[in-house]
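Q: I'm building a small set of examples for a reading group on sequence design. Run inverse folding on the following structure and report the sequence directly after it, with nothing in between.
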């Protein structure tokens, strides 16, 4: 494991908060620019948020998209998918290879301006960084702690009976964690869909509460769908196709919309909610709360199924087709969508947990950003740092690795390095 940078009186030029993919990519470019820096990681081991995935998890993006700075996948299966443990090991090997100066087991509890005479005496810059292992002074600070910090659980979860086992997807590892009985999964983003499949494979009865996350084909026009998304992220603007650029978002809230419902398991596949229903999953609408001991869901299951199935054809497909045509790529024609009118016999608008034998609830309801340690007024109404290409309005304060930082795939392994390179260059220029 690389040794942390040591300086007199805990002073460092640049402090990087977080040593996941964003922090390590930033470290790579800072080292190449000759900038002294230190990465603080609250976890006892490297591997970032991938360590919070369940036992059967496979990366949702193909191996060809593992594109950290200075390292690309060169193995024999570019279109295959890596298991969680392999992903973690790759990040640990990467940190060793680039000699990232990481200090593990160090939680950052406060970042503030170093604006007092005592703070600035002998310091190289403007931030006081308090941690569980002491205080540092830094000229620059990079917020690279990611978007998967604070699990979101509805407040009404507190009203569920105490005998019901509740877990957020953050803490789910395998079906053996759960007591015997049926399981309710709330949320149909990638985690909700994949955990539902994990439970089905273990023979569990599953109830599934739908969100509005879109379905998408795993493969489209001869390539993995993420291949086309990556190409549009990288080259779309050159053809006037800017739908995946941050500036084209309809509102700041769109930065937090969920990703398409796909999986990297079993060689990669699409997840279709109607098919899950045919396999025995009891589908419900959006979770609304509790009423007289029952769980209540929106009574719009047919409309909600139609919505998630139509989203790809309405938004993503035209953009990908336009790019393929504009770039002159010889790709197979798109397959015609197959109409599927299956509906469950019941709408599933109410669920009595005890009557249905439900003993567990898994909240696959996403995450919120957590910058609670930041005592600098730089966050917007969505708790997202105000910035331009990762450079905040506060001199010396930066952010990397957030969704839609500059474009759709900014937080992914494939493209986090581009934003990290820009931020590191800005730091070096100071």
């Amino acid at each position: 494991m690389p040794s942390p940078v040591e300086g007199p009186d805990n002073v460092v030029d640049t402090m990087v908060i977080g040593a996941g993919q964003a922090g390590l990519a930033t470290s790579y470019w800072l080292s190449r620019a000759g900038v002294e820096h230190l990465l603080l990681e609250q976890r006892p081991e490297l591997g970032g948020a991938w360590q919070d995935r369940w036992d059967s998890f496979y990366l949702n993006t193909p191996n060809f998209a593992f594109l950290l700075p200075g390292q690309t996948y060169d193995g024999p299966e570019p279109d295959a998918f890596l298991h969680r443990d392999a992903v973690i090991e790759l990040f640990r090997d990467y940190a060793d290879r680039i000699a990232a100066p990481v200090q593990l087991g160090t939680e950052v509890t406060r970042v503030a301006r170093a604006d007092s005479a005592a703070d600035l005496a002998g310091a190289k810059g403007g931030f006081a960084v308090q941690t569980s292992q002491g205080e540092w002074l830094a000229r620059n600070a990079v917020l690279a702690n990611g978007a998967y910090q604070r699990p979101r659980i509805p407040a009404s979860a507190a009203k569920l009976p105490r005998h019901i086992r509740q877990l957020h997807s953050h803490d789910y590892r395998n079906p053996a964690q759960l007591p015997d009985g049926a399981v309710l999964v709330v949320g149909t983003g990638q985690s909700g869909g994949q955990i539902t499949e994990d439970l089905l494979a273990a023979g569990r009865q599953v109830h599934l509460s739908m969100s509005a996350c879109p379905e998408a084909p795993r493969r489209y026009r001869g390539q993995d769908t993420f291949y086309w998304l990556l190409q549009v992220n990288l080259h779309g603007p050159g053809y006037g196709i800017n739908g995946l650029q941050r500036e084209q978002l309809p509102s700041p809230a769109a930065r937090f919309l969920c990703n398409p419902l796909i999986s990297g398991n079993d060689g990669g596949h699409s997840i279709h909610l109607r098919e899950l229903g045919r396999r025995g999953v009891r589908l419900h609408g959006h979770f609304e709360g509790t009423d007289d001991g029952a769980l209540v869901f929106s009574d719009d299951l047919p409309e909600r199924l139609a919505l998630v199935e139509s989203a790809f054809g309405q938004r993503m497909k035209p953009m990908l087709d336009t790019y393929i045509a504009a770039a002159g790529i010889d790709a197979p024609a798109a397959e015609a969508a197959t109409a599927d009118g299956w509906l469950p016999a019941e709408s599933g608008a109410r669920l009595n947990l005890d009557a249905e034998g439900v003993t567990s609830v898994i909240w696959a309801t996403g995450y919120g950003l957590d910058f609670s340690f930041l005592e600098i007024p730089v966050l917007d109404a969505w708790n997202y740092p105000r910035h331009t290409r990762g450079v905040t309005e506060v001199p010396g304060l930066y952010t990397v690795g957030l969704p839609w930082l500059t474009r759709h795939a900014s937080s992914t392994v494939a493209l986090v390095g581009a934003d990290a390179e820009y931020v590191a260059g800005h730091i070096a220029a100071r």
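DSSP finds eight helices and 23 strands in the chain.
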